[in-house]
């Protein structure tokens, strides 16, 4: 019997929050964050796990970085800090019918935290892939992670999540997965 917190390919949805061109210069360790996010994106795509990409106020902060290869139908724009505050985004998340949300993005203490708290309040299990998250200041990132953990979010990493999806070297697509470039330290 699986619990609400057991990640599977069938119950997972990946959300990439505001990984936009306009935030690249202000976020600490952005290259490492994008590297981990790309690994997560490619791993999810390999096993057909749906992904969504939010864009915070794209008129000001531009669009999702090209390296993440977001498809038009996966992207939604928002002006609220919580993606659940946007009716379009909220409907998109619910329409995927997945109870486990894998969450990556920026800024940890603003849009990520408000979105995660709303997702938890709506009954979702949320897994924070901390190597694919960040803020302008490390204290903001650290405190946001602590706050979200206290509210019930599960702290993890991209590799830990992806290996939970596969569970075994005998899993379908595991051989192809072995050829993906993993995040650097």
TrEMBL record:
Pfam families: Isochorismatase (PF00857). Residues 13-159 form the Isochorismatase-like domain. PANTHER family: HYDROLASE, ISOCHORISMATASE DOMAIN-CONTAINING PROTEIN 2. Belongs to the isochorismatase family. This is Ribonuclease. It comes from Galdieria sulphuraria (Red alga).
